[in-house]
Design goal:
This protein is an all-beta fold and 596 residues long. The chain contains no helices and 46 strands. 43% of the residues are buried.
């Protein structure tokens, strides 16, 4: 997609000057074709500062500081890079660029490009980034998996460096999983002040290492305390138990102390395990089910770790079997993965799992030892599910909080099954289904919609299409199990809704939501069954990230958990404090609860 702006787009700044790329002219055409670019400041011939810009897929262009335009770099023939992921200059003006698609490193000197892999100087590899020391011209290149090469003679010869990874002091202990053969590596750079110190942005955070020219290994140490920024998926809490937080890539965390890093994560510490949803049951507060699945593609034998915990998330056991949805290959370890999962309110053995990729849902009555395919009347197989993409924050399968064996599912009506669109109910644990509401409850609700059931009340359901799509994400409610729906007045663009302990003197659970109430955005609470709302915060601790999931403490009134799209979780609770705006580096903020 091409974006248009009346202002130039700032690309980079140098010593006393700035480089900008002008946006394309309105109306498109050939002149509006803007391609991704990389930019460097370099010593040009004669010692004059110069700008190098690589237009991806086209080639390298250069401009002297005094000149007004860019011209192709000398030597831009057939044997020259067209796509690079990073680059760096040595002090004598030689340029090195990494080409992961071409599996090589390019060197430019004296007007000519050299493909180091093609010339046999290095082996083919998925070279991702290159760094040059500002102190001694030590040159390091890294593959995407963290493998490193070093040259101390200007790229004429290279040696391999070993690698270790360890957790830094006071960092999250579970970062120990980074010590793997595959250490996902992005940009690497030398510290401009501390001699021989390297920094890397890796797949699991920020790391540093001290690498003098005679070192034989790179010993990375994490420096991620406070910036781990997990991608939240779910949060649940049973009465009397610690809350559980589920994330992409780093599994399920038990947090008995909300102010201390969890010591590890489940169901199994491996690279990389995504827990998309957690499911509780009033029948057993220690029981939790999950559809956790590996997302790295590294570990087919442990690709799907879906299963359950019988001790409130401290240890996990995989389901005894894995279903084979129609339209999938039986030898595909991810044939039944991610999606949505729910546990009957009266029987932890009765579980329904609707996997992603619109694959058909299944139910079990023996805690996952055996699974039975769910059929909807009028369905068109094989793809009869309602969760199209694994990354979507879609949660539209819930168990009735009171009635054993009763579940509700909002079917999006995927392209082959538009006739299934609506809310369906089963009252026999998943064997037979009846549609109670036909069509969409809210427009454009096939993506990140949420269906929530109020605890302790049968058939009291809340629904939002969520903010993805921004068409109509007003909050809707049904008190008859989904047969009829009413729009809650004044509540719009709701990303999620959840329920917590009732206020003193009340019997109805407290309702929380993230969204707009009477035109004002924030985190909102209702203690009177959605008749009125109080705003708890606008952007907690200055966080502008998107809310993707909410959870609340069933034991402590007012304690709320907020899960963010890319910055972990925040929690809040009533406190005696002085309300004030957030300041830089604050880790807490006090808000005054107000009414719209």
């Amino acid at each position: 997609m091409t974006a248009y702006s009346d202002q130039p787009m700032v690309v980079a700044t140098g010593p006393g000057w700035t480089v900008c790329l002008q946006p394309p002219a309105r109306g498109g055409g050939a002149d509006a074709d803007v391609r991704p670019a990389l930019i460097w400041f370099a010593p040009a011939e004669g010692g004059t500062r110069a700008i190098w810009i690589l237009i991806q897929g086209v080639g390298m262009f250069v401009s002297e500081q005094e000149a007004g335009g860019f011209t192709p770099l000398r030597g831009q023939g057939a044997a020259a890079p067209r796509m690079l992921s990073s680059g760096a200059f040595t002090s004598d003006g030689r340029f090195f660029g990494t080409d992961p698609d071409g599996k090589t490193i390019w060197r430019y000197q004296q007007g000519e490009w050299t493909n180091l892999a093609a010339d046999g100087v290095i082996d083919d590899g998925s070279y991702q980034t290159v760094a040059v020391s500002p102190h001694n011209d030590q040159l390091l290149a890294f593959e995407h998996n963290g493998s490193a090469l070093r040259s101390i003679d200007g790229g004429a010869s290279w040696s391999t460096l070993r690698k270790t990874v360890q957790v830094g002091e006071k960092d999250p202990p579970w970062l120990r999983i980074a010590d793997q053969n595959f250490f996902a590596t992005s940009q690497v750079m030398f510290d401009p002040i501390v001699r021989d110190r390297l920094w890397v942005t890796a797949g699991v955070g920020l790391f540093r290492a001290d690498v003098p020219p005679d070192a034989r290994s790179i010993d990375w140490v994490s420096r991620s305390r406070g910036i781990e920024e997990l991608v939240a998926n779910d949060v649940v809490q049973s009465p009397g138990r610690a809350p559980l937080f589920a994330a992409w890539d780093f599994g399920i965390h038990v947090k008995a102390d909300l102010d201390v890093f969890s010591s590890g994560f489940g169901p199994k510490e491996q690279m990389i395990i995504a827990a998309q949803q957690l499911a509780l049951t009033p029948a057993d507060p220690n029981f939790v089910a999950t559809n956790a699945s590996d997302t790295s593609g590294c570990c087919p034998k442990a690709a799907v770790l879906a299963g359950y915990s019988e001790d409130a998330g401290r240890t996990w056991q995989r389901f005894g079997s894995l279903p084979h949805p129609p339209g999938t290959k039986k030898d595909d370890p991810w044939r039944m993965a991610w999606g949505m999962i729910a546990v009957s309110s009266g029987n932890p053995d009765n579980i329904i799992w609707a996997p992603s990729l619109n694959r058909a849902p299944f139910y079990t009555r023996d805690r996952g030892r055996n699974w039975t395919l769910i059929h909807f009347p009028g369905e068109k197989p094989p793809f009869t599910g309602s969760h199209v993409k694994k990354h979507l924050q879609r949660k539209v399968l819930v168990a009735d909080p009171v009635k054993d064996g009763t579940f509700y599912l909002v079917h999006s009506g995927n392209p082959d099954n538009r006739q299934l669109m609506g809310l369906w109910r089963t009252q026999d644990g998943g064997s037979s289904w009846t549609r109670l509401f036909q069509g969409e409850i809210a427009p454009k609700s096939e993506n990140a919609a949420k269906l929530r059931a109020m605890p302790g009340r049968s058939g009291d359901l809340f629904f939002t299409s969520a903010v993805e799509g921004t068409h109509d994400s007003r909050l809707r409610r049904s008190t008859d199990g989904g047969v009829t729906w009413q729009i809650i007045p004044g509540v719009d663009q709701v990303s999620d809704v959840t329920f917590g302990k009732a206020a003193s003197g009340n019997t109805v659970p407290t309702i929380y939501l993230a969204g707009f109430v009477h035109g004002k955005y924030g985190i909102w609470r209702s203690v009177d069954n959605a008749q009125s709302w109080s705003r708890l915060a606008v952007f907690p601790i200055g966080r502008l990230d998107r809310v993707v999931v909410l959870g609340a403490d069933p034991d402590i009134f007012g304690r709320l958990y907020i899960g963010w799209q890319g910055s972990g979780w925040t929690y809040g609770a009533p406190a005696a404090c002085q309300a004030r705006p957030v300041r830089p580096f604050d880790i807490a903020q006090c808000y005054k609860v107000d009414r719209p």
